[in-house]
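hey
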């Protein structure tokens, strides 16, 4: 039976029995290794940020235990991911506790005249779940609750890690390569200028809708992720692969490419938002001339976060994972992908060249993550290798052959499009074959293997 690439497989034997000890130990070792690696990365990033005189992601997260959070919705999204491992009664208790803590913080801040925001309660409950797991749970229940708390904390830490990465790019990359990408974009028909004029002509309706779509992409992803994780509380296990995993990995790997290929986007390099640092104020009314591109000196504030377009990568991943849902979810995934692509180009945040690079980047990472969960096979290995090669070739052509691309758009425009389409086609074929047999979902037993009732959190 064929399944979608994001089908949730069981972690039990086909007969419904538990995994033998060896695979359980291997899975536990993998989680421990991933946790240690993530912590080491966050510590290294913290020290790097300190070197530039600013607080890193760990400091920001610790501060939000007491101080006003930067993003309350983000903290509650992390809490929502943690709640998937709890029963419905436990979820209601945890949510009530989070709201209660936030009410207390609100009253204290209001009385003291401090900055007002919410979200501390959500963070407290997530940390409380981790503490309960370590002190009052054992075995599989402890591991499950720790995974839930860790996933919630990792979502918040991932967002703060991205902010730190962006700061580092602006501090360490004093010049940007926008002239190279803008020149190469002539081969694609200058889509940012075209869509930018279209959005301007249809404002304010188009801009209002697109701002919501662009800004609420994390919320849309959280809803799809929660849909995929909706059975965790019943089945007492996480699916091997889900949207949140790919989202986090894309956010981790993408900024590393920013360091190699720093680009700020047409609205800054060629638009009024760039101020005195802009080459000229051309976007989106006048196309830049084709010449020999040179690195452009730029300020130490604007993030170099264009190549590849991670908003595009996240929207593509959201689209892929929404395919397994209901018809409204599939429609929403398609709408968010189309809206995100329009917004990234129409607001001047990205060029067409880094949008197609984002598509290739997303499908390559998604294939690798899915293969890590379901097992590697020859088509998956070939697709990851092909996607990596195409992504590297795109970046190399933008950097070293932009004038040639612009001089022969009827040759290189289709070539760039076909290279991207080859990765999309390869992923669609792999998804159509499916890799995991669809087994019946295992419902949570009313008692543990030893015959004792399952423990309750509250």
């Amino acid at each position: 039976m064929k399944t979608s690439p994001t089908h949730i497989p069981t972690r039990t034997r086909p007969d419904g029995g538990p995994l033998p000890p060896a695979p359980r130990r291997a899975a536990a070792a993998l989680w421990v290794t991933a946790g240690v690696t993530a912590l080491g990365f966050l510590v290294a990033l913290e020290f790097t940020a300190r070197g530039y005189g600013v607080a890193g992601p760990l400091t920001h997260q610790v501060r939000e235990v007491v101080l006003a959070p930067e993003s309350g919705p983000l903290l509650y999204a992390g809490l929502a991911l943690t709640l998937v491992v709890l029963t419905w009664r436990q979820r209601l208790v945890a949510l009530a506790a989070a709201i209660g803590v936030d009410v207390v913080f609100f009253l204290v801040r209001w009385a003291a005249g401090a900055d007002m925001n919410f979200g501390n309660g959500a963070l407290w409950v997530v940390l409380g779940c981790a503490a309960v797991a370590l002190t009052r749970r054992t075995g599989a229940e402890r591991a499950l609750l720790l995974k839930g708390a860790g996933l919630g904390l990792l979502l918040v830490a991932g967002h703060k890690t991205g902010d730190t990465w962006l700061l580092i790019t602006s501090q360490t990359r004093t010049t940007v390569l926008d002239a190279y990408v803008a020149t190469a974009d002539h081969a694609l028909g200058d889509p940012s200028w075209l869509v930018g004029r279209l959005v301007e002509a249809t404002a304010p309706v188009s801009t209002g809708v697109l701002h919501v779509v662009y800004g609420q992409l994390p919320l849309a992803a959280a809803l799809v992720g929660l849909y995929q994780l909706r059975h965790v509380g019943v089945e007492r296990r996480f699916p091997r692969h889900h949207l949140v995993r790919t989202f986090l990995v894309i956010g981790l790997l993408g900024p590393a490419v920013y360091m190699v290929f720093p680009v700020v986007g047409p609205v800054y390099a060629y638009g009024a938002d760039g101020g005195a640092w802009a080459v000229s104020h051309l976007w989106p009314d006048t196309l830049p001339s084709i010449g020999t591109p040179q690195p452009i000196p730029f300020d130490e504030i604007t993030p170099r976060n264009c190549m590849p377009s991670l908003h595009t990568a996240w929207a593509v991943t959201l689209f892929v994972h929404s395919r397994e849902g209901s018809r409204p979810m599939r429609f929403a995934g398609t709408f968010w992908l189309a809206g995100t692509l329009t917004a990234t180009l129409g607001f001047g945040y990205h060029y067409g060249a880094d949008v197609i690079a984002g598509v290739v980047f997303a499908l390559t990472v998604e294939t690798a993550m899915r293969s890590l969960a379901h097992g590697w096979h020859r088509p998956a290995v070939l697709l990851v290798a092909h996607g990596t090669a195409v992504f590297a070739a795109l970046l190399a052509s933008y950097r070293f052959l932009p004038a040639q691309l612009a001089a022969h758009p009827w040759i290189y425009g289709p070539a760039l499009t076909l290279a991207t389409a080859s990765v999309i086609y390869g992923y669609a074929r792999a998804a159509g074959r499916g890799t995991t047999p669809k087994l019946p979902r295992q419902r949570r037993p009313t008692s543990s293997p030893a015959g004792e009732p399952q423990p309750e959190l509250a």
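The radius of gyration is 23 Å. Strands lie at 175-176, 296-297.
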